[in-house]
Amino acid sequence: MAEQEHTRLEGLTEAEVLDRRRRGQGNNVSLDTSRSYADIIRHNVLNLINIILFVIGGVMIAIGRVGDAVTTVGLIIFNVIIGVYQEMRAKRQLDQIALLTRPKITVMRDGQEKTVDPSDLVIGDIIVMHAGDQMVVDGVVVGTGKVEVDESMLTGESDSIVKVAGDEILSGSFCIAGSARYEATRVGEESFANKLTAHARKFTIAHTPLQREINFLLRLLLLLAIFIGSTMFVGAVISGLPFLRQVQMAAVVAGLVPNGLFFMVILAYAMGALRIVQQGALVQQSNAVESLSNVTVLCTDKTGTLTANKINYHDVYPVGIEPAQLQPVLGSFARSASATNKTSEALIAGLAGEKHDPVDEVPFSSALKWSALAFNDEKMRGVYVLGALAMLRDHLEVSADVVAQIEQWSDEGLRVLVFAHNPEVLILHNAAGKPELPTLTLLGVISLSDELRPHLKETVAGFSANGIALKVISGDNPQTVAALARQAGFAGDLKYVSGTDLAEMDDVEFAQVAAEATVFGRITPDQKERLVDT
To answer: Which residues 6+ apart lie within 8 Å of 206 measured at CB?
Structure first.
């Protein structure tokens, strides 16, 4: 069994790669948008309203009303130019959407590491990943390696996730720590990231309520005009009326079509689309202007939408020590780590301190949910640990006052960590090389706040004033997201629900909760799509 695993980790042979590529198992991707430039021009020129206006223009020329004909045809040209411009602009931006970069990939071939282009990968390839790499195909971790990955681009979950043998790797995620190998299981257009990209680029024509009513009116008036015109033409032929008289009668029939109404609708759509484009938004169809006016519920993410994807140092609750003594020690701890993350960056920005050289270190990971440094100098001696209380509870004693403070800050939407110390111990690993903590003494509790985006409260108030209900769909903890929503100005008693709870509901319960709840946390990508569709 061990020999088979070893052979598997050596990767495919070049012959196996060629065979799988011939069988269509290569990482070939063709992500064109569903519309070509010709489709865009055809859609904007040859539509029902334009055809009718062309006919009206022709009739007006026939009866000598050239000025009116020029106005009508000019309206068509204006509408076509505006529509083609903004839809081609949207196509170019959609074509640039990509979750995946195209770096060189390190892969095992014939037992040797080889650098290849992502397009050279096939199903079954053993890919080597290190910190900083982006995964370009889906797969499963193999071997004894362990990595920490960031899936925030895919799931909205801001916390990193540890992956070990047997765990799934999603294309589009990033390796932020560790190294491992994984076997490619889904490549090309079947990979998770490419499916998301294709879905984002997909174009569908959707008619707004006003457009549906106008199209119905058009068809009704067109049928009426054809019926009346045919009747009048037959009557004119039987009566022997001269041709000029027949043309004048045709003009009367053409007058049944309210081209002024069409002009106003087209002008409103075009000008509205231009104003939206000037704000930097992507407009695929000009009728999106009306769609915006019909919005009653708006779903938003937390990370990068409500928040600026940055955390700040908020406050410290010292235990058995003065704040003036605790803060510089905490600042020095953050500066002395070998690598920084958002937490340490927030502490460095908010607290003074000095960098010291540790004699041992355990970097932060989402599996441990704590980091530790051991020092052996005059200013800092012993082990210092920063992490989640739940993971350190067995190593220290916590009073009821401390627990109450932690609960209060958590209810306010703050991230809460504890900082502890042991002055006698200088090592953080056992004989087997695994992280191991001694008994600790609590020094204090630290709170960190997510930084809200500028002008967020004004934006939320504006939506509320216009009768638009806001819902937050996030990969983060629902209680934390709900507290942030309150800070952002969300009104009322916010009901929140987790993705785990949603997964256990039937369709009826799901629809009811989707309508009643405001905050949805720990939500998977599939659940996000289902919530929006509901």
So the answer is: 285, 287, 291
Range of the domain at 275: 37-96+205-285
Residue 296 lies in a domain: no
Residue 163 to residue 140: CA distance in whole angstroms: 9
Q: Do 408 and 528 have their domain in common? A: no
Comparing CA positions, the residue from 107, 477, 56 lying closest to residue 229 is 56
Asked whether residue 84 is domain-assigned, the answer is yes
Q: Do 322 and 419 share a domain, yes or no? A: yes
**CB-CB contact of 180 with 140 (8 Å):** no
Does residue 469 share a domain with residue 420?
A: no
In a domain, 295, yes or no: no
10 & 130 share domain: yes
- Shared-domain flag, residues 330 and 439: yes
Total structural domains within the chain: 4
Active site members: 301
Per-residue pLDDT of the chain (534 residues; tens, 9 = 90+): 444 554 567 889 999 999 999 998 998 876 555 677 888 888 888 877 777 777 777 777 776 777 777 877 887 787 788 778 877 877 777 676 655 566 788 999 988 999 998 889 999 999 999 888 889 999 999 988 888 888 877 766 666 677 888 889 999 888 887 889 999 999 988 888 888 777 766 666 666 777 777 778 777 777 777 777 677 767 766 777 666 666 666 656 655 556 666 667 777 777 787 788 777 777 777 777 777 778 889 998 887 788 887 888 999 999 988 989 999 999 999 999 887 778 888 999 999 999 998 998 888 765 677 889 999 988 889 999 998 887 888 899 899 999 999 888 887 878 889 999 999 888 888 887 788 888 999 999 999 888 888 889 999 999 989 889 999 998 777 887 888 888 888 887 789 998 889 989 999 999 999 999 999 987 877 788 889 888
Residue among 178, 256, 189, 191 nearest 223 (CA): 256
CA distances to 230, 251, 438 from 237, in Å:
11, 17, 107
Specify whether 10 is located in the same domain as 133.
yes
